[in-house]
Specification:
The complex is a heterodimer. By secondary structure, chain A is mainly alpha-helical. Chain A is 75% helix and 0% strand. Chain A is built from 17 helices and no strands. By secondary structure, chain B is mainly α. Chain B has a single domain, classed as ABC transporter involved in vitamin B12 uptake, BtuC. Chain B has 12 helices and no strands. Chain B starts with a helix and ends in an 18-residue tail after the last helix. The chains are: A mainly alpha, B mainly alpha.
């Protein structure tokens, strides 16, 4: 029973309960609207994991939100709310496209440069927001929201500019082929590759029918690195100290201004990398005219929060979210139920992770009962 | 030239109206100590509720009220989480921004045969009727009635917050809930009321988009307005008139974009569209400076804790 209590107090239990409640509430909404919840969840699961190709797509779609999630989580741990991951992502993808189109170097040079451009874009935007906060005391939430829209229109400007616009389309020119980061990208399209793959069905499916790329592996490395920096280095300690108590940090000789800028720079760079990896890893390998925000940054917030803002926790959280979002598309195809049910479900899950108190309260109640029982036993013994 | 000036004022007022409602919602909630990131979501719910109710009843005023009620219902979630359960208010707000648009579209598709937009719904009137001032140079000053309501609400909120006992209580709860509690103020009750009002106002904001500016709900009717409103709250230093001014400034720059875009201006439209956002940052740097939130903003109050 004590173990169960301990489990209830853990972050994992809170997340698990939140997910269960998310499913329960969506089931109620679906049923109330006249759709079969069981069938819908079946379609959801099938749509996410039914075929090797679907699973590959879940991981592909998890890549950007894992990174924006880590970005939000990192900033949050240092006392900053990075609502600007969206803009950093957009700017990252835009700069990556610019560099990828203009440069045509061999792959070992090209890929790092394109990714660096994306990181730089996001980091610059993040640092700008951090600088505005450190220097002028302007709340990072306002400036981030403004920067989201500035990046949004900058992206559209580049797409439509003479130098980058692809004629008769709504997108920019594709980046050079040497920037691609698909797994076995060249080999799988060669004769030998096709020959080899024709024998292995599942491998052929995930390699030829999806843009399976190195992005997810890079994202996992980044998540682990972010966690190590936060928890195991002096820099991370200082960043967290500033987030925890600014005045105390200043008093102990930590430069608050420098750390605010640094934290936003790192968070921005991670979101920028997410944008760059989308360009190098997924077709159409370019930016397109945006009509509305693409929500990578906003979904990143959800990913981070369900993970309790632990960078490593973002890994399962991103996979969960991407399977919900990707699998959710088949809910509409198979059951006719609006796929917006997925937003409701994710919203509910995030909502209930905001209430970690609930599982704690259950644990408290159990502990109370146990203590009462023990006291009773003691009393009986004494008597 | 004169006609252009009038047009500029007209567009400024039109654009700022939904923002004003949203920002007022933010002000009342944050003054009581509850951060409300969920304004955007509450506005979306208001937008869909207004168009739907107006369409089915034929009466846009019922639509307007429905938007307020539905906005408040969503806000109730936020209140339960952040007041009763001492939840992380940022997370709860983010959740509402995820949940509400999903709910809005789900409802929309359910009501209108799977369409992601509502049919054209009856609109709220303009202040001087449909043809008021037509054929005069002042035609563009015949603004939506919601613009006037927004201004009225701003004045009322200023009065209530600064000139009444209840307003003093709200501010006390937002600055130092424990002290307010010892004076016998029910912190939870005040916060519940403020968060519900916040949702109602945000709902009105959504309505002033879908049954005043345009006449239907679409997926992009509310796209980022709630976030701009949130920025306006901070920009306006958490005061009703400050927030109102911030929204006006924002509406004005939007109007400039439209006016300049219409002429034979050399700047590409995408660069022009950045103007409101760039200008906001510049104004913040030059004139506004440090903004200090209500002291207990975002901090859940747990009775008896220090």
């Amino acid at each position: 029973m004590r173990n169960f209590e301990k489990f209830l107090r853990s972050r994992f239990a809170a997340a698990l309960i939140a997910v269960l409640v998310g499913f329960a509430i969506s089931a109620i909404v679906l049923a109330a609207a006249g759709y079969n919840p069981i069938g819908s969840f079946g379609a959801l699961f099938n749509g996410a994991f039914g075929k090797p190709k679907y699973i590959a797509n879940v991981f592909i779609k998890a890549t950007p939100i894992l990174l924006t999630g880590v970005s939000v989580a990192f900033a949050f741990k240092t006392g900053l709310f990075n609502i600007g991951a969206e803009g950093q992502y957009i700017l990252g993808s835009t700069l990556a496209t610019i560099v990828g189109v203009k440069l045509a170097l061999p792959m070992p040079l090209q890929v790092p440069l394109v990714l660096a451009a994306g990181i730089l874009g996001g980091a610059a935007l993040g640092a700008f927001v951090g600088w505005l906060k450190a220097k002028f005391g302007i709340h990072e939430v306002i400036t981030s929201i403004m920067c989201n829209w500035i990046s949004f229109y900058l992206c559209n400007f580049i797409v439509m500019s003479d130098a980058f616009h692809k004629p008769n389309s709504t997108s920019a020119l594709q980046v050079n082929g040497s920037s691609y980061t698909m797994i076995l990208g060249n080999w799988k399209k060669s004769e030998a590759g096709k020959e080899f793959l024709s024998n292995i069905h599942w491998l052929r499916e995930i390699l030829l029918k999806t843009d399976l790329n190195y992005g997810f592996i890079i994202a996992i490395v980044v998540a682990i690195a972010a966690s190590l920096v936060l928890n195991r280095t002096k820099l991370g300690y200082e960043l967290r100290a500033v987030g925890f108590n600014r005045d105390a940090a200043r008093f102990s000789g930590i430069s608050v201004e420098r750390n605010i800028i640094l934290s936003m720079l790192i968070a921005g760079g991670i979101s920028g990398l997410a944008g760059a990896l989308t360009i190098t890893g997924i077709s159409p390998h370019t930016i397109t005219l945006l009509a509305a925000m693409e929500s990578y940054g906003f979904n990143g917030m959800s990913v981070a929060f369900i993970a309790g803002c632990a960078p490593i926790g973002c890994i399962p959280s991103a996979i969960l979210f991407s399977s919900l979002i990707y699998g959710g598309m088949s809910v509409q195809q198979v059951m006719g139920a609006p796929s917006d049910i997925i937003s409701i479900m994710i919203g509910t899950i995030v909502f209930f992770t905001a209430l970690p108190g609930v599982t704690g309260m259950i644990a408290d109640a159990i502990a109370k009962k146990r203590k009462a029982k023990e006291a009773l036993k003691e009393a009986v013994k004494e008597a | 030239m004169f006609g252009n000036l009038i047009l500029l004022i007209g567009i400024t007022l039109m654009y700022s109206t939904p923002l004003v409602f949203g920002a007022l919602g933010g002000v009342i909630s944050e003054r009581s100590g509850v951060t409300n990131i969920g304004i955007e979501g509450m506005m979306v719910i208001g937008a869909v509720a207004a168009a739907t109710a107006s369409y089915f009843t034929g009466n846009p005023w019922i639509g307007f009220l429905a938007a307020g009620v539905c906005g408040a219902l969503v806000a109730l979630l936020h209140a339960v989480a952040s007041v009763s359960f001492a939840a992380d208010q940022t997370i709860s707000g983010v959740a509402i921004n995820m949940l509400a648009p999903g709910l809005a579209l789900f409802a929309c598709r359910r009501f209108f045969d799977g369409a992601a937009m509502s049919p054209i719904a009856p609109k709220l009137p303009k202040i001087l009727g449909e043809s008021g001032l037509a054929r005069t140079p002042f035609a563009n000053l015949n603004v939506n009635v919601t613009t006037v309501i927004a201004l009225l609400f701003t004045i009322i909120m200023w009065f209530v917050l600064y000139k009444t006992k209840w307003g003093l209580r709200v501010r006390a709860v937002g600055e130092h809930p424990a002290a307010a509690d010892t004076l016998g103020i029910d912190v939870y009750k005040v916060r519940y009321i403020c968060v519900l009002l916040s949702g109602m106002l945000a709902g009105f904001g959504g309505a002033s988009m879908t049954i005043a500016i345009i006449a239907q709900f679409t997926q992009t009717a509310i796209s980022g307005h709630g976030f701009i409103a949130m920025a306006a709250v901070i920009f306006g230093k958490w005061t009703p008139f400050g927030a109102y001014g911030a929204c006006l400034l924002f509406g004005f720059t939007q109007a400039l974009v439209i006016m300049l875009g219409g002429g034979d201006f050399v700047v590409p439209s995408q660069i022009l569209s950045m103007l409101p956002y760039v200008m906001t940052i510049i104004v913040l740097i030059l004139f506004v400076g440090r903004s200090v939130a209500p002291k207990a903003d975002g901090v859940p109050y747990v009775k008896g804790s220090r």
